Amino acid sequence: MNFKLNRLAKIIIFCFSFFLFNSEESQARNLPTCQIDPADSTKMKDFECYSTPTIYEITIYEMGLCVSDPLNGTTYNAGSGYAESDFVIDESSCEITFKSDNGIVADLAQGQINLVGQDFRPPSKQYNHAYLKFKNSQGITAKFEIDGTSFCSKNEESDTNALQGSPDCTAQKFNTNLIDFRAGNSCSIPSSNYLGATYSSFDAGIVKALLTDISYNPQSSCNSTATKRIYGSFKPLNPINIDNTTKGLQVSFSVTNKGLLINTNNNGNLITSFAGGPLTPTFEKF
Known about the structure:
The structure is a single chain. By secondary structure, the chain is mainly β. It has one domain (8-27, 56-145, 177-261, 279-285). It has strands at 8-14, 48-51, 55-66, 74-77, 82-85, 94-107, 118-119, 125-127, 129-135, 137-141, 143-146, 149-153, 162-165, 174-177, 197-202, 205-212, 229-236, 240-242, 249-254, 260-264, 271-276, 280-285. The strands form six sheets. Strands 3, 6, 7, 9, 10, 14, 15, 16 and 17 form a nine-stranded antiparallel sheet that branches. It has a three-stranded antiparallel sheet with strand order 1-19-22, with no helix packed on it. A three-stranded antiparallel sheet has the order 2-20-21, with no helix packed on it. Strand 15 (197-202) and strand 16 (205-212) form a beta hairpin. It is globular and about 60 Å long.
């Protein structure tokens, strides 16, 4: 049984009431969607791929809109294939739309999320970017099947290894901290390989992120003690125009076929580990 679910969390980040919306699917481009090899049903087609988690939890602290990119100094290096950054966050053109001092846990694999916190209406103007501040920890539940054998996530803290069941197993939620975009919950070795910034282009726009401490100071070197948050910047395909008739703004996070990263062994017939995939939002005002 391959879990190809349609998961999309839609959040109203400022309005007078909350609504339930239908799900949609939005595809990522930088890794293929997980599927069985059509020439050999006993293995995966790709060594590394994206699938859909049944649970994708993050803790959100703040959301907002910006005229200019707050992570303008984080760019894509075509030569290395990774991001490079000046590790600067510039919020001088940004407006807060939602804030929760203690953070609100949101399962982005669900269809509706009611964010409990402070809502702010931004001034009427054109916004070209949005930002999100969230905890550097994800709660993931995952399951995928290869040739009648299920592979499930385990519930050990920071254990992303897959549990093998023949024919079945029970998927359990695991929590993993991200302290290095290259090495996940551990520091890459040597330390010069540490990646504290990321940059991705999707069909919904451009996504950037920096690892920060609890006060949102970017971390340019690997320090698992200091790294507590992620600051994300999003550039949608079309600007967000807020005017006097705007009642609210809906932001949709799709995790369908990209919220779950699956790694296999060299032969592709065993799933070795799971990890959280990227967040790619879309925006709609009403």
